């Protein structure tokens, strides 16, 4: 009976037992877009130059930042390299400005995230 329960558990919930050993592979990309305050953009539709100071304050206080790609309109949740912070160091100084970001993109369950490796002002 115990063996049966273990087999059923492994079959039904493989992620519980394999989650630490299996890592998704990100795709290396470079995108150009605007650094957005994710909270204000999604909950209040606020963005643009009139929102710059509010976005800077929100970012300073820990609000997650995203990159809205200019070409496709895709919103990439920005994540940092160290300690899984929302934004890489320095990204918050570009809120509501166009940047070019390089990093690895991960997509799952409708969320698109970029693990930021470098950021610079867009040319």
Topology:
Elements: H1 2-12, H2 14-18, E1 27-37, H3 38-44, H4 52-60, E2 65-69, E3 75-79, E4 98-108, E5 111-121
Parallel strand pairs: 3-5
Antiparallel strand pairs: 1-2, 1-4, 2-3, 4-5
Task: Please give a structural write-up.
This protein has helices spanning 2-12, 14-18, 38-44, 52-60, and strands at residues 27-37, 65-69, 75-79, 98-108, 111-121. Helix content is 26%, strand content 35%. The longest helix is centred in the N-terminal third of the chain and has 11 residues, at 2-12. With 123 residues, the chain is α+β, with helices and mostly antiparallel strands. A hairpin with a 2-residue loop joins β4 and β5. The protein is globular and about 35 Å long. A five-stranded mixed beta barrel has the order 1-2-3-5-4. The chain starts with a helix and ends with a strand. It has a single domain (23-121), classed as OB fold (Dihydrolipoamide Acetyltransferase, E2P). It is built from four helices and five strands; from the N terminus they run ααβααββββ.
- Taking pLDDT < 50 over at least 5 consecutive residues as the criterion, the unreliable ranges are 4-11, 14-22
Q: At CATH's second level, what is the architecture?
A: Beta Barrel
Shape: globular
- Any idea what the radius of gyration is? 18 Å
Strand fraction equals 25-35%
Number of domains: 1
How many strand units? 5
* Largest beta sheet: strand ordering: 1-2-3-5-4
Number of helices: 4
Task: Calculate the terminal CA-CA distance, rounded to whole Å.
Answer: 65 Å
Series of H and E elements? HHEHHEEEE
CATH topology: OB fold (Dihydrolipoamide Acetyltransferase, E2P)
Main beta sheet: 5 strands, mixed, barrel
Task: Give the averaged pLDDT, no decimals.
Answer: 81
Overall CATH class = Mainly Beta
Helix content: 25-40%
Question: Which class best fits the helix and strand makeup?
Answer: alpha+beta
């Amino acid at each position: 009976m115990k063996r049966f329960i273990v087999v059923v558990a492994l079959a039904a919930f493989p992620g519980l037992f394999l989650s630490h050993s299996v890592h998704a592979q990100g795709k290396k990309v470079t995108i150009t877009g605007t650094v957005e305050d994710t909270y204000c953009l999604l909950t209040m539709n606020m963005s643009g130059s009139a929102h710059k100071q509010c976005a800077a304050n929100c970012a300073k206080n820990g609000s997650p930042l995203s990159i809205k790609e200019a070409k496709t309109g895709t919103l990439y949740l920005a994540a940092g390299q160290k300690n899984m912070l929302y934004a890489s160091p320095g990204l918050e100084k570009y809120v509501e400005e166009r940047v070019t970001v390089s990093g690895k993109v991960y997509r799952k369950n409708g969320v698109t995230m970029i693990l930021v490796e470098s950021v610079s002002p867009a040319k």
